[in-house]
Amino acid sequence: MKLRALRLWNTRRFDGRGVAIENIGNGVSVLSAPNESGKSTALDAMETALFTKHDSRAAPVKSLSPHSGGSPLIELDIETRDGLFRIRKRFLRQSTASVTDLATSRIVAQGADAENWIEREIRDGMHGPTGLLWVKQGITAFDTSGKKEMEEERKTRETIVTSVTGEVETLTGGRRMTRVLAEVKGALDAQIVQSGRAKTGSPYDQAEKEVASLTEETAALEAKLNLLRDELLSRARLRETLDKLTDPEAIRARIEAARTAGDALTAAQSHARTLEDAQKTEQLARTKLDAAQGRLGSFRTALSDAAKAAKDLAEVKTRLEAANTRNAEATKAQDSASRALATLAAARTDAENAHKQAIRVALSAQHRDRHRTALENLSRADAARIRFETAAAKAKTIPVDADTLARLRTLSSDLDRQREQVASGAARIRMDYAPDAVAKIFHDDEPLADGRDTPLTGPVTLNIAGYGELTITPGRSDTDARNPNATAKTLADALAKTGADDLAAAETLLREKTTAIDAARDAQAELRALAPDGIDALRQEVTRLASLIPDDTGDHPDPETTEAAMTAAREAFDAGEAKLEQARAALKSASETLWHLKSEARTLSERLTTLDHDLGPQDQRADTLAELEKTVTDLTRAHMEAAQAVQRLSASAPDLAAVTAAANRTKAVMENAELKIQQTRTELAKLDGSIASRADEGLEETHFETKGRLQAAQTHLAHIEHEIAVLKRLHAALEKARANAAERYLAPVITELAPLLSMLLGDAEIRFDETTLLPTTVERGPVTEDISILSGGMREQLAILTRLAFARLLARDGRHVPVILDDPLVFTDDARIAAMFDVLHRTAQDLQIVVLTCHETVFRQLGATDLTFTDWTPKDQP
User: Fold this and answer.
1) Distance between CA 846 and CA 818 in Å, rounded?
2) Fewer beta carbons within 10 Å, N or C terminal of the chain?
3) Which residues touch 410 (CB under 8 Å, ≥6 apart)?
4) What is the mean predicted confidence (pLDDT) over 221-227?
């Protein structure tokens, strides 16, 4: 039998997974893998699969189960004289066994039949070669198995030898030797049985029983004497122990040790609290540092954002200037009207100036300027209020907002897409007029275009001049499901709610609403700036200021007169300004662009204002940044100092657990001492009572008498044993004379071993025990050495050589069995290991040798075929 593959699933360390060793060839193969990788598991699994039945619950089978439980599965591909077969066994739960012919994929045996096939084809009645040819990890000699296994291996070796050399011939030393052997054997059989024990009822048996009885009696008396002696010794030891425990000096030492340990514990606990406080200080410093770093980062970000906002604002202002330029160009269209208005504007300005002059003259020097400013603010506030109310009212009347417009755009897009889909799938009509055609065919009062397709999305009526009307009703198609009429109605209803005729009008309305909202917002902001307390409060302020201006009796124009003149000038100016409205409408587009730029500039300005407010005055920012950086630096230094303090305290901190344990130990010593004193006194009281009760039994006299009787019985037994020993020696001598003729019994093994031994030790020879068939001595020249006194490395090498010799015997008899060595040669030096590698290669010419090792570097010099573990999942696993 030769091994070709081994596969394991759910076996020991391979819990819930599988591995395989594939493509095992002839000669020497080596599997190098680290410790705990599963090499020994593979060898145990192979042994179990071949030599243990699948339904067994024996310890070797249970040992293959993984920690999580389950059923180990083992597959072996083997080659026999009949071909290539696969042995598959599942153990424990749902145990199965099968043998498959791999050449035909036919299952040749299952269950008990599979076990019989393995017994017949593999084991061959040898009970397995595991101890003989398979060396497990850590086993290098021949006698490390159990008694039962050793006997089975001896039988195996004997079977191998006899199967090769034939049965041992019956040896005779003549009739006289036979008669003498029979008489010696008869005398021995009268006294002992085959095992060497005394025969029941024989003088030897009676003498043994008498000695045993007296020995038992003597032992009982000695036990009582020993017990008495032990009690006396125990009492002495207990008294000594009690004296030591109650010694005042020992008591003071225990108290002092407890006090010292308590002081150390107090100091350690104090140090631990100090360390905890330092750790809290370090954590607080870290928190402050993180906060300061955050403020510094935020300030730097704000500086960067402010610079960017200023840059963006400058760019917008540049674009605003360009927009102003474009607006000015658009204004040229109204220059003629503006020039006409200029005269009126100048007249109005003169009138207003004259009126202001009159007012200034009328007011006192103290209130004149304030009154004029209040009047101007009031005028502008009225104008801003009017603009706000007008714009707000306009925005309120426009029902369009961004969400509404988005929905309208979605509906319009859906409608266009649906119309395109309907048009692409609808029936079409085409009219190609003759060159001399006079009349036209009309559709919806419009003539049909010449040579152009017109889609029919519904019933169509055509007016044919001179003939009448032709109605075409297209049939239903798959495009009807996409009829845009519902979408068109939804869009029309939505537009109707906005008051717009179409989407463009709705967009215009939204822009107008947005413009109105922005105008209202601007006007409201201006109104709040001019009259923060309201227009009525501003009017009251104007009135109040006017009341504070004393009358001027000088020769100045009457304010009422100048006001009337100013009013007339303004009316004339307003009339001229009305003429400019048409021209101003032309500026609307340019104004909108200008407004958007102003809005963007305003947003940037507000952003810059916010950043400026956050950053503070420009001239103080550098100082602020420096101060923040200094704060971070100071806090960093403070945190480092706190961390260093923690490190110092941690480095010098005593082991609190050890100190606590020492304190607890000294306390326990004191408590145990007190308890021991109490227990010792109790035990002493018991021993005193027991010793007193045994004092009058006379044990020593009785023991002396019984011991004399025992000596006499032992003398008689020794005489019988001497006689038996003489008979055994005589029998052994006679048998040895006969055994000398059976030296050729071990000749085949020695023949196979000799060339292997010479490769390792030169001219050395090995002697075998004819009973165990194992090596007993090694002869190297004139020196004979017992196997047991050789070094571990030498015993290891001889064990492997002997196994190889037996394997070669099996191979020569046509029964190939692989030699498997698990972590061999661990005690072999470098020189010998090279020689052993040569031996393995020589024997591998007609053997299959598999080496399992964790010494990859060393066994790389073996020059063997490399084997590896590969992942494997059975086909019947999920």
Assistant:
1) 10
2) C
3) none
4) 79
